[in-house]
Amino acid sequence: MRILFVLSGNSRETDPAAGTEQVPLKNPVHQGETLMELGNEVDFYFIRGKGLAGYLRNIPHIRKKVRKGGYDLVHAHYSLTAFAVSLAGRFRIVVSLAGSDVLGMPGLLPLTRFFSRYRWKKVIVKTEAMKERLRAGDIIVLPNGVDTGLFFPSDRSEARKQLGLPDKRIVLFVADPSRAEKNITLAHEAVGLLGRDDVILLPVHGVSHCRMPLYYNAADALLLTSLWEGSVNAVKEAMACNLAVVSTDVGDVRANVSGLAGYHITSYKAAEIAGKLALVLDSSVKINARERLFDLGLDSASVAGRLIEIYKSVNS
Known about the structure:
Layout: E1 2-8, E2 13-15, E3 20-22, H1 27-37, E4 41-47, H2 51-56, H3 59-69, E5 73-77, H4 79-86, E6 93-96, H5 99-103, H6 109-118, E7 122-125, H7 128-134, E8 139-141, H8 156-163, E9 169-174, H9 184-194, E10 199-204, H10 212-218, E11 221-224, H11 233-240, E12 245-248, H12 253-257, E13 263-266, H13 270-281, H14 290-295, H15 300-315
Parallel strand pairs: 1-4, 1-5, 5-6, 6-7, 7-8, 9-10, 9-11, 11-12, 12-13
Antiparallel strand pairs: 2-3
């Protein structure tokens, strides 16, 4: 099968070790690479230009790319990208939506529903809550998979040495702190309530994806204080590295970690979050969450297999 992935190329990650800037090797790109490993042909078109107007300027370039490529279908990632693809021509489109596309942009939701119902062949969302809110088109719940070949447990001391981190208890915060829904103010407040000089909150954003396993393995816990999410990649990556997690009840976190030792769901009360963090930081319980990912079929190979079935249904 020959597929064109269309996604944003506006975000960049810096790899401090190499001193280079690169297109982020995050979920859509890794998903495409996994599909190639399974024998499919995948090309990428990266949107350049921000805001709705910036995305729409890519329409003629997308149209030209599709006409020349002879693709079986186009897989557009996220709503603004999918709008541009939809206006570029009449071809088969599969769309993946993030949590913010459905839960965080109410002004665009009517337009998303319109295209979902009348233009997109299949719409992939991350959670049942997203499906219930969208309520339009042929919707399939399929979370992002985790690259378990990249994310796996390793020695904490060595990871800290490579990152130059201090000898303290490290609470990791993996998100763009400038995004209001990530709620970093609450994270700072909760860690502050611990009143411990040996604990630091470490926000991580814009780091090369291939270096992220070092941060998960260097940390003592991952903290998520988001107001909303789809399928939370940071939590799944932490699970792959057997890192403890304290999280608000968003997205698919509860479904994925329920019953796992070292994993706690909390309210938005800073005192409660601090209490859960204290439990994790002072616990000697063995974390064994990695196997849960395979049990749930959330490794990248399993998710890619399900994605291929979706593509086949579009082309049948």
